[in-house]
UniProtKB/TrEMBL annotation, chain B:
Domain AAA+ ATPase: 53-194
Annotated SUPFAM superfamilies: P-loop containing nucleoside triphosphate hydrolases
Highest taxon, organism lineage: Bacteria
The name this protein goes by in its record: MoxR-like ATPase
InterPro entries attached to this UniProt entry: AAA+_ATPase, ATPase_AAA-3, CbbQ/NirQ/NorQ/GpvN, ChlI/MoxR_AAA_lid, P-loop_NTPase
Entry-linked SMART domains: AAA
GO terms assigned for molecular function: ATP binding; ATP hydrolysis activity
Native source organism of the sequence: Agreia bicolorata
Length: 762, 339
């Protein structure tokens, strides 16, 4: 081994542990972002231990003088060994050589982990299989990151970090956590910097000239680009973005707007928790009240989780008359113009029951039972759609509702199905609440009164905090005990309890603009619907009237349908005068508490302000990133000014000028070594570039006199300072004139002198 | 002082000379040396540096490249006493130092000085002598005195040994011990002349040796004045630190078994002073040090066996190591604190 190679090896040994540590930090910080969706912290330590083992093995092998590639191989071997020891123990021969049963055990773990992800609610319990998935994935990321370091392409690790970083965002669709993002970006940039420095110190000298300023520059440019992308992508894609990240297998199984593979109602909770809601759609209507806009119905509860009907049979190309609506029910027709903005959905938000639909394009299909309109596969993104829809406003009389009695046609039996393992608390509470009611209608009114009577509180946080988010049977039982949740829990509970009491029910998911009218268009009120106004409500079926929405969710300020109030049910007779569909005087839902996260944004102005603020933040962050990109240039300019100023003031003006010249040369890719004497460096300048040699010589002599001569009795005169300055400027201009355009730009924007402080001459 | 060359010892108190006079005198010596050895300016300069820095010079090369000629030319250029010892295996220590002989007439022992009692001693083929004789030279070189039969005799000043030796790989030689090598300020290697120089040499020496044409251009006092002048050259703290850093680096280097002694550091600074004076500069630059590192430190370093095995010869290994150390040692460039 030559002296050079040995020296390089020692430098690598010294530097590489810092790179390895930076790799671990770059993995660990975004990994910690998974904390909101996984319980506890054991999984983080386990995963980081695995990553540390892999990276550490690689470092140890490299530090003991083996080729770097063996380090990556060692990391991979450690990954395999640790995986099989912990997640498939006893299957390997002598605990080392994996067998088919080892692989089988690991695959079984992965399959179980996939199932766990489907079944579990957020935050998930890190059972063994999930732990295996997290640890092995983290270990593999560590191995790949290590390989990227060895391949001298550390910027690639940014992709891994970004993937880790966006995982919680994809699952939870929350806004980007600025602190976590900054921490991730900072650790990544730190890694780039360390890697570039270590790399720069050990790179073979014949390439050092061309690479002196490029490696850190390229890495930082890549890093900054990644930062900008990561900031912009989640910010501009509104609402239901989980689809983009969703696993395709699950997406095929559950064609939902709500991001596949996850309990669909969790998405609803996520949207409600968005800190900066954006506009989903706007609509104007001839109705005098805001309308429920339904997108989809969850009808199937046989599995223990409320789900949309997956059966695509019976879809028709037109709107059909509403199910079960008798001719004698009073009705009026209203026209609504909907303009979709940010909502990305394959279903059109429509008021129910809709009778005609215009301007929605071709190819849509409607479900005759639920009235849900689905866009064709070729166009499953509703953004930008404008359409007009006519719908009925039903005003059934109390007699008509009471006349429905308890009869249910056999065709609706599927809508009465309950899971076998429904917790008893649900049916107990249902029977207790509806004890005195004789008709389905009375029972429904009693159920709604039970939820709106004040003992339940509205909260989008409680279900997450108490770990029962979702609409499955267990979550409902927990909700009935805690008595705090949001619309999904109220709607699902009421729908489930209605089925217990023999009322066909389903859960509608859509929008209800609980805000004031934002403005008037052509004399018609226009409503602006935000993402956090995504809502769900139960629809109950009564013979002779059909499906009617109920509103069990308190605290949102939503005006409750008149027929659902006890007062309406107790009216002895129904006058001929049309009854208002909704009651203005007796809204049973209290105005929301101030603590309610959505309360502040209830007014339209506040919403648009919030939206504006969101965009301002995006713009500010992008501008900040751009400004951050200018930081190196600014620091360099500041340093240069300081050097130039010190030429006039310092006792050693020539030395200051010489240092500035060295920095300048570094910026332009000229090697500067700490072992250079002024004469060697001056000679190198003259060899490399066409530079006025008189200036270099005079400046060099001045430096030598200043540094090494006996100058106790020779203060520096002003004339000499001026000469030094002139010589410096003239040399620098000559270097700049010689350089290519790209080199000049690089020297200005990413001055290598800030990153490469020392190098050795070849 | 135009008359100083013609009137030796006229001014025993040896007036001070300035750098211009220094340049004139050194130029005259250089002209003499270059007339004798064609195309070897580096070697001539180095030998002059050693002479003016009051050091001893070791000239090492294969036979017949002009080692002795260089040593003779150097000695003759200075009108000082010159003696020459041809070292052979049967040379006795007393031949070098001198011997006490009983004078029957005076009825007492009289000291008969050996060859070492001269201003410039040419020790030819020093590695052919036995170690005992070699070590006899030791005391003389460092202490500048001779002890015979308990009586100490001081040597003249200036005193400079110019030793020549064949590479130790040659037959019938005794390698100089480390201690003795350390006493030489510098080792130079002559190297073969290039084709033109060799042709010119054939032409010049057809009739007579060029050594015969050499006149003394500097007398003893002037030589001492030049020595004092060079000693006055300023060495900044920064350069001293630089020299010490280089010395320390040789002791830490993994490819070096034995680093350089503190005496080597001293020699390096002294030689650098003369080098600066020869360039007409009154202060030492790191460049002066850099240029002298290999000749001044090279013969004192013992490389590891592995390092030697990796190279063609030990000399190559040492040179490469020293050059690497010089390049790795930071050159001090200290800015004043007050801005």
């Amino acid at each position: 081994m030559s002296a050079r190679a040995r020296l390089d090896r020692r430098l690598r040994q010294r530097g590489s542990w810092m790179v390895s540590l930076a790799v671990l930090i770059t993995i660990g910080v975004p990994l910690a972002g998974l904390a909101p969706i996984i319980q506890g912290s054991d999984w983080w330590f386990a995963a980081m231990a695995m990553a540390t083992a892999c990276v550490g093995a690689s470092w140890a092998v490299r530090a003991s003088g083996f080729r770097p590639a063996f380090g990556v191989a060692a990391a991979f071997v450690v990954w395999v060994l640790v995986s099989q020891w912990f997640f498939a123990p006893g299957t390997a021969i002598v605990g080392i050589i994996p067998t088919p049963s080892t692989i089988g055990a690991l695959i079984a773990g992965f399959i179980d982990a996939g199932a766990q992800i489907q079944v579990q609610t957020i935050p998930a319990d890190p059972v063994a299989s999930l732990m295996q998935l997290i640890c092995m994935a983290c270990g593999l990321i560590a191995v790949v990151a290590d390989a990227a370091i060895v391949a001298r392409f550390p910027a690639f690790i940014g992709v891994l970090a970004l993937a880790l970083f966006s995982t919680p965002s994809a699952v939870q669709a929350r806004d980007v956590d600025v602190v976590r993002f900054m921490a991730t970006a900072a650790s990544f940039l730190l890694l780039l910097w360390i890697a570039a420095r270590v790399d720069g110190n050990t790179r073979p000298q014949r390439r050092s000239m061309s690479r002196a300023g490029r490696s850190p520059a390229t890495a930082l440019a890549l890093g900054a680009a990644a930062v900008v992308c990561a900031l912009i992508v989640p910010s501009v894609t509104p609402g239901l973005t989980a689809q983009a990240f969703a696993d395709s297998r699950n997406a095929a199984r559950l064609p939902s707007v709500y991001g596949a593979g996850i309990d669909p109602v969790i998405q609803l909770g996520r949207d409600l928790r968005r800190t900066t809601p954006i506009v989903s759609l706007r609509y104007t209507t001839t109705a005098d009240k805001p309308l429920y806009l339904k997108m989809v119905d969850l009808t199937d509860f046989s599995t223990g989780t409320w789900q949309p009907d997956e059966n695509a049979d019976g879809l028709v190309q037109q709107l059909t008359s509403p199910t079960g609506l008798a001719d004698d029910v009073e009705r009026s027709t209203v026209t609504t113009d909907v303009s979709i903005e940010g909502l990305r959905s394959e279903w059109l938000p429509l008021p129910y029951p809709a009778t005609t639909l215009n301007g929605a394009g071709r190819g849509w299909t409607a479900d005759p039972d639920t009235g849900v309109v689905t866009l064709p596969d070729s166009r499953n993104d509703s953004r930008g759609d404008d359409y007009s829809v006519d719908s009925l406003v039903l005003t059934p009389s109390a007699e008509q509702l009471a006349a429905a009695g308890t009869a249910v046609s056999p065709a609706l039996n599927p809508l009465l199905q309950l899971p076998a393992d429904l917790p008893t608390i649900v049916s107990d509470v249902a029977n207790q609440v509806a004890a005195g009611a004789t008709t389905n209608y009375d029972r429904a009114v009693a159920l709604q009164s039970y939820f709106t009577s004040g003992q339940f509180t509205y909260s989008v946080e409680t279900p997450v905090a108490e770990s029962f988010d979702g609409s499955n049977a267990e979550a409902l039982a927990a909700f009935l005990e805690v008595k705090s949740g949001y619309c999904v829990h109220f709607a699902a509970s009421m729908a489930t309890m209605a089925r217990v009491l023999g009322i066909p029910s389903r859960i509608a998911i859509g929008y209800f603009p609980n805000s004031a009218v934002s403005r008037y268009v052509d004399g018609k009120p226009q409503y602006e619907v935000l993402t956090d106004q995504l809502h769900s409500w139960p629809e109950l079926y009564f013979e002779g009237v059909g499906w009617l929405p109920f509103e069990p969710t308190p605290g949102l300020g939503i005006s409750v349908p008149a027929y659902s109030l006890p007062a309406f049910a107790e009216q002895p007779t129904q006058s001929t005068a049309p009854t208002p569909q909704t009651s203005e005087v007796t809204p049973t839902t209290r105005a929301r508490d101030k603590a309610d996260p959505a309360a502040e944004s209830s007014a339209g102005e506040t919403r648009s302000l919030a939206q504006l603020r969101g965009w301002l933040i995006v713009v500010a962050v992008v501008a900040g990133v751009c400004l951050a990109g200018l930081v190196p240039a600014s620091v360099r300019i500041w340093r240069r000014r300081r050097f130039l100023a010190s030429i006039d003031r310092s006792d050693t003006p020539a030395t200051q000028a010489w240092r500035e010249l060295q920095d300048f040369a570094r910026d332009f890719g000229i090697v500067v070594s700490r072992g250079d004497t002024p004469a060697t460096f001056g000679q190198r300048l003259l060899d490399l570039r066409r530079i006025p040699s008189a200036d270099v010589d005079s400046l060099r002599r001045a430096v030598e006199r200043e540094q090494y001569a006996d100058r106790r009795h020779a203060p520096v005169g002003g004339l000499e300072r001026a000469k030094i300055r002139v010589a410096l400027i003239s040399i620098e201009n000559a270097i700049r004139d010689e350089a290519e355009q790209s080199a000049r730009r690089r020297a200005r924007l990413l001055p290598a002198s800030l990153f490469v402080r020392s190098d050795r001459p070849s | 002082m135009p008359d100083s060359t013609t009137q030796p010892s006229a001014r025993a108190d040896a007036a001070e000379i300035d750098l211009d006079e220094f340049a004139r005198l050194s130029g005259a010596i250089m002209a003499n040396l270059e007339a004798v050895i064609n195309g070897k300016t580096d070697v001539a300069t180095l030998s002059l540096i050693v002479l003016l820095a009051e050091g001893h010079l070791l000239v090492e090369d294969v036979p017949g490249v002009g080692k002795t000629t260089l040593a003779k030319a150097l000695a003759r250029s200075v009108s000082a006493s010159v003696s020459r010892i041809q070292f052979t295996p049967d040379l006795l220590p007393s031949d070098v130092t001198g011997v006490s002989i009983f004078n029957q007439q005076a009825n007492r022992f009289e000291f008969k000085p050996g060859a070492v009692f001269a201003n410039i001693v040419i020790a030819d083929e020093i590695n052919r002598a036995s170690p005992k004789t070699q070590s006899a030279l030791l005391e003389c070189m460092e202490e500048r005195q001779v002890s015979v039969d308990g009586v100490t005799h001081r040597l003249d000043t200036p005193f400079s040994v110019v030793a020549t030796q064949n590479p130790i790989e040659m037959e019938g030689t005794f390698a100089l011990p480390e201690a003795q090598r350390d006493r030489f300020m510098a080792r130079i290697s002559m190297g073969y002349p290039d084709a033109d120089a060799e042709l010119a040499m054939l032409h010049n020496r057809e009739l007579q040796s060029p050594l015969d044409d050499i006149d003394a251009v500097v007398n003893r006092d002037e030589l001492q004045a030049m020595t004092r002048c060079a000693r006055e050259v300023f060495v900044s703290r920064a350069v001293e630190q630089y020299v010490v850093n280089i010395a320390q680096a040789t002791r830490r280097d993994p490819e070096v078994r034995l680093g350089v002694s503190p005496r080597a550091t001293l020699h390096l600074v002294r030689a650098a002073k003369v080098a600066a004076a020869l360039e007409g500069r009154d202060f030492v630059l790191p460049d002066d040090v850099d240029a002298l590192v290999v000749p001044v430190l090279g013969h004192r370093i013992v490389p590891t066996r592995k390092s030697v095995n990796d190279h063609r010869s030990g000399v190559d290994a040492i040179e490469e190591t020293l050059i690497r150390i010089v390049q790795a040692t930071p050159v001090p460039l200290v800015a004043a604190r007050s801005l």
